[in-house]
Amino acid sequence: MINAIIGQKLGMTQEFLKNGQVVPLTVVEAGPCFILQVKNKENDGYEAVKIAFGQSKGKYAKKPTLGEMKKAKKTLAPALIVEVSGGGKNLKVGEEIKVDDIFKKGDFVDATGFSKGRGFAGVIKRWGFHGGPATHGQSDRQRAPGSIGQRTTPGRVYKGKKMPGRMGNKKVTVRNLEIIEIDEAKNLLYVKGAIPGARRGMVVIKKRKTQKSRHSSASWRKNDKVR
């Protein structure tokens, strides 16, 4: 069985629970997706399913993608194709997958998306550096990174040094998010908490094997100690 679905982040809102607690919600248009390819151990060495979501301009798609679309009896190329774990003999190419086929209210999921791109950023914005002092003759070093190297040995800058550079636009996964509500008619998921990415950004919602949050209020009360 498929354990994930592709969606589009619509925005955020909030809702009051029955106990009066207000929780932030992220609204995701999850699906409907359709199956492009079903992989099995005999042909591919492992079991997986390639699913697609949305539509893009077909003339800009690559020929292999257009060939897969033809087998699935679709005309336009999808906006996003993702391979997810799962499989089974009952799955067929071109079959539609809806949000209620995988998730139900109360499930815990992992959400993967691309964080907002912030362009080229300095070390203060990117890494939280404090900068140099605005005294002792330093008139233009308040936001500078400072020394980045060593002496003759090793005579180079170590890999991974925190430097200015492109910030954001990276693949981010947020785990242990709870599904508060599902709108089956509109294919909407209301997920507790924030999901990475901007509005209209693509996200992959994956169902967790362990259906219990590590950060639930009950677990916090149990592990809380008086210090």
UniProtKB/TrEMBL annotation:
**Region listing for Disordered, in residue ranges:** 131-153, 206-227
Q: State a single Gene Ontology molecular function.
A: structural constituent of ribosome
- Is Transcription regulation set as a keyword in this record? no
Q: Biased composition, Basic residues: where in the chain?
A: 206-215
A GO BP annotation: translation
Name the source's superkingdom.
Bacteria
Example of a GO cellular component annotation carried by this entry:
cytosolic large ribosomal subunit
What the entry lists under Gene3D superfamilies is as follows: 3.30.160.810, Translation factors (2.40.30.10)
Concerning InterPro entries, the annotation shows: Ribosomal_uL3, Ribosomal_uL3_bac/org-type, Ribosomal_uL3_CS, Transl_B-barrel_sf
Keyword Ligase in the entry? The reply is no
Give the record's keywords alphabetically: Ribonucleoprotein, Ribosomal protein, RNA-binding, rRNA-binding
Main function: One of the primary rRNA binding proteins, it binds directly near the 3'-end of the 23S rRNA, where it nucleates assembly of the 50S subunit.
- Subunit and partners: Part of the 50S ribosomal subunit. Forms a cluster with proteins L14 and L19.
Q: Which family does it belong to?
A: Belongs to the universal ribosomal protein uL3 family.
This protein's name: Large ribosomal subunit protein uL3
